[in-house]
Specification:
By secondary structure, the protein is mainly alpha-helical. It has one domain: ABC transporter involved in vitamin B12 uptake, BtuC. Helix content is about 75%, strand content about 0%. It has 14 helices and four strands. Helix 2 packs across helix 13, helix 4 packs across helix 11 and helix 5 runs antiparallel to helix 11. Pfam families: BPD_transp_2 (PF02653).
Length: about 325
């Protein structure tokens, strides 16, 4: 049994090693063929590029860890941003606008959790539905047009630079640290892992399974809120549908970083690395003038490889437990 356990652990480490080696190779190649790729400006650009995906990915990590999935994050991201923008345009105070925007995100996150746990609809279907709701709401609220944001405080809080670094990078680092603490250093995080690994055992252990799942979706929605605000700080606009193209990356980043899509295992640092990997690939191929579909093919191939290895690891672990 010990030899099987050691072999499974070896394969798991090998999977992570493949990602790291691929990342290093990409960095070396792009630094050779793309002038300034590893310069200070290049690194700052890379970190800025990955920030939104990283923040969304951290939110998704909580949901994946508990054994569910959320594909509404990209669409939901534009809801709080257009709520803030429209309210500010109509003279509502910044504090109230931010609170209502946060509430809008929390309500959809809570809805995801309640429908999944109380009604029993699979989270993929639930979040597919709320994704459509979010798409429609963002367009209705904004009149289906980008809304400019001129409030100096919100643009300063979520945009501009501090100590020579774009604040979006600093926010990403802060939210990563908070996410790491929540998932790996708190009872809530332990409950997420326990529920994701074995719900019956978690219930017998005294964990409120349904509440834990709902809280995972709510935490995810908070991260989506911050992603929306940071997009405003980055562009000075709230654009309906601006995050819809990021939904796949928000799921891929955690999975590449080692979070199990079957639940029970989540890694915030892994999500950060996964988002960095995606940014390196997309930025490097963009600078080399490769068509966008090249990036899609490469990332899709990596997803299949990572999920295949993860599936084999899970299978071997179950076989080991049976023995």
């Amino acid at each position: 049994m010990e030899s099987i356990y050691g072999y499974v652990k070896y394969i798991e480490k090998l999977k992570n090693l493949v990602i790291y080696i691929t990342m290093v190779i990409m960095i070396i190649l792009f630094s050779i063929f793309v002038p300034g790729f590893l310069s200070l400006d290049g690194i700052i650009t890379l970190l800025t590029t990955m920030a939104i995906v990283c923040i969304l990915g951290i939110g998704v990590t909580f949901v994946l860890t508990v054994g569910e999935i959320d594909i509404s994050t990209g669409a939901l991201m534009s809801v709080p941003s257009v709520v803030v923008a429209v309210l500010l345009k109509n003279g509502v105070s910044l504090f109230i606008a931010l609170m209502l925007a946060l509430l809008s995100a929390l309500l959809i996150g809570y809805l995801n959790g309640v429908v999944t746990t109380k009604i029993g609809i699979p989270s993929f279907i639930t979040t597919l539905g709320t994704s459509g709701i979010a798409m429609g709401l963002s367009r209705i609220i904004s009149g289906n047009t980008p809304v400019s944001v001129e409030d100096k405080f919100i643009l300063s809080l979520f945009g501009k630079d501090l100590l020579g670094l774009p604040k979006i990078i600093l926010w990403m680092i802060l939210l990563t640290i908070i996410g790491y603490f929540l998932l790996h250093k708190t009872r809530f995080g332990r409950n997420l892992h326990c529920v994701g690994d074995n719900r019956e055992a978690a219930y017998l252990y005294g964990i409120n399974v349904k509440r834990t799942i709902i809280l995972a979706f709510v935490v995810c929605s908070i991260y989506v809120f911050f992603a929306g605000m940071l997009m405003i700080g980055k562009t000075s606009f709230a654009t309906p549908g601006e995050g819809e193209s990021l939904v796949l990356d928000a799921i891929v980043a955690p999975v590449i970083g080692g979070t199990s899509i079957r639940g029970g295992k989540g890694s915030i640092i892994g999500t950060f690395i996964g988002a960095l990997f995606l940014a390196i690939v997309s930025s490097g191929l963009f600078y080399l003038a490769f068509p966008s579909w090249t990036t899609n093919i490469l990332i899709g191939t990596i997803i299949i490889i990572v999920l295949t290895i993860s599936s084999l690891i899970d299978k071997w672990q179950k076989e080991m437990e049976c023995k």
